Amino acid sequence: MATPRDIAAAYRLLEEMFINPALRDDQAIAFWFEQVRTSLPHVAKQLDRFVEADGATSSHEYVSTLELSPPCPLYLGSHMFEEPSTCSGISTSPRNAFMLELSGMYEHFGFELGNVEMPDFLPVMLNFLAISLEGSKEDTLGLRRRMVEQYLLPGLSPLAKGFEKFGSVYGLLIPAIELVATEDLQQMGDVPMWKSPDEQSGKVSLNVLSDTKPAKSLKDLNIPEVRP
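Above: the chain's sequence. Below: its structure in token form.
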């Protein structure tokens, strides 16, 4: 049976695969691959399909698909929500609420995002899911379940469709992420998904990103400020 450490290794391996092939850490990949192959063979099998496919190690394929005004950006929110047509629409867009909720979750676990990337950048999300498993802090609130069920999985399908449209080899990584996320959810057991106070009282639906006013700040999310 896979352990949290095994699942974290799978997340880290997937994160590394979404890096430009010229910058990937081959030694770390080999280490994580060995661990995943032993504990999560179904995930390793899907990753083998990616590694063996044409374009998986091509920097040109990576840049043309994922960089330089990419046709398939790795920002999940860009696939889940329509981009605002005006500058004033940015602050009230559903994606803004999505980003704020992600940022609040990162802060809760002491995950330092900095100014390097946006909160909905897929490799960042995978990195967070790995780190939050490796840390000593136990997720008794069900925040990681919310992360996987509400933020990660819903964004993978539209991203996969984008990869399929452009015939990108990176589409082979999406089923692997789904397999790891499913294993992660099973490991969480009966811990329910975290809900905001408004959700618990029935004032808003769980689909807070589409039918409610976006939060204006992290404090509006009411995520307890607990550090590891």
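Confidence is low (pLDDT under 50) at residues 85-90, 206-218, 224-228.
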